[in-house]
Amino acid sequence: DVIDIRALSKLGVFTYDPAFFSTSSCTSEITFIDGDAGLLYYRGYPIEQLAEKSDFLEVCYLLLNGELPTAAQKTEFSNNITHHTMVHDQLARFFNGFRRDAHPMAVMVGVVGALSAFYHDSLDINNPQHREISAKRLLAKVPTIAAMTHKYNVGEPFMYPKNKFGFVENLMYMMFATPAEEYVPNPVLVRALERILILHADHEQNASTSTVRLAGSSGANPFACIASGIAALWGPAHGGANEAALKMLEEIGDVSRVPEYVQGVKDKKYKLMGFGHRVYKNMDPRASVMRQTCYEVLKELKLENDKLFGLAMELEKTALKDSYFIDRKLYPNVDFYSGIVLRALGIPINMFTVIFAVARTIGWVSQWNEMIADAEHKIGRPRQLYRGSVRRDFVPIAKR
Ligand code: ACO
Question: What is the mean pLDDT of residues 177-190?
């Protein structure tokens, strides 16, 4: 049930809803979630079907344009993205300003934000063609920057994108290849990363997307807006949860310690990372796909007896039987299993949230574009409940 309360502001009345438990900030035609039933649709298509039958660039086209592409549209879109993956050589120099051990998300915020200083030719946000060019540039260049943050971190040379590779293969190539060896992508692992990207591509008005919309509502350029989304994604309650969930599994270390750890959660000493969601009060549909992907990747790598995967399944089983989790409707979310898959793919733990940012870029861009294209949109401006001092007169410093 929806009540449009905007007219109340004219009467001087407003609502108090910190953390937005029951406030819609916009209308949108992009992503639908039914948290009670555990459903997630992009433009009406169930996430399970897209994860199984589609590929990431097709999903990007869908999110951005509203419809699945025809074969010709898909080829044109893919070619367009593939030919924009290079970044300006001067952008590469930004990296040297960071410490080698800087967290890759810190580097991402800075370098993606810096893109706005490189593309003055397409920053008129009221021009739909400029918006389209910016969207494609972001989609194509964020993976290149992401891979560069990793290479910089480990002290290896940057690998230039190769047009012969598909989008996901290219991301893996830029992260893992070295000039010394021929890189041959493993199709099972490429497919697994493709699925991770599809599952994380959009999730309606989450914290980072809302941040992008709020920044964009002031007319800020899209590169700056996406950098603000990356910053909001970083926190452990949001995109940082995959990193936190894997660290948690490593800390538990052994199945025998699961009951003791769960007790600590119930005693509120810490949270079960990768569990719970503001909207899902049922299984996150992305978590089921991710668990299946986990099986497939570990089988391919002959790691079926992976200790952390066994531990995660035991933790899930224990939690789902416990009244603490049942009463609060806490189920695994997408990030409970994604860390195990990312680790198996050879992606270092500090890059997990970066991969999430690569995936979510299309969601942020699509949501930003939808907002700007709406001629009625206004600057986002929440109100507050003032609880500070009442009016008082200034006291000179000698009398304080
Ligand atoms: N472990 C233990 N208890 C939890 C957890 C958890 N992961 N999540 C929520 N709870 C408890 C809260 O302590 C609270 O208990 P109370 O009623 O006794 O006070 C109750 O469940 C309700 O939780 P809220 O904090 O009100 O839920 P909210 O919607 O604000 O939080 C959030 C959602 C941030 C995702 C939370 O569940 C959490 O911190 N989970 C762990 C981090 C995580 O996995 N984040 C990823 C989210 S998905 C994504 O960003 C892709």
Answer: 94
Instruction: Tokens for 60, please give them.
Output: 């990007």
Helix or strand (DSSP H, E) at 57: helix 56-65
Residue nearest to atom 18 of ligand 1 (CA): 328
**20: CA distance to ligand 1 center in Å?**
15
The residues annotated as belonging to the active site are: 277, 335
Nearest to 255 by CA among 297, 316, 303: 316
Q: Is 157 exposed, middle or buried (0-12, 13-18, 19+ CB in 10 A)?
A: exposed
- Residue 25 to residues 44, 185, 205, 251, 339: CA-CA distances in angstroms? 21, 42, 8, 38, 31
CA-to-CA distance for 370 and 87, rounded, in angstroms?
26
Task: Quote the pLDDT of residue 361.
Answer: 98
Give me the mean pLDDT over the 328-347 stretch.
93
For the stretch 240-255, pLDDT in tens is: 888 899 999 999 999 9
Q: Are 46 and 40 in contact (CB under 8 A)?
A: yes
pTM score of the predicted model: 0.94
- What's the confidence (pLDDT) of residue 241? 87
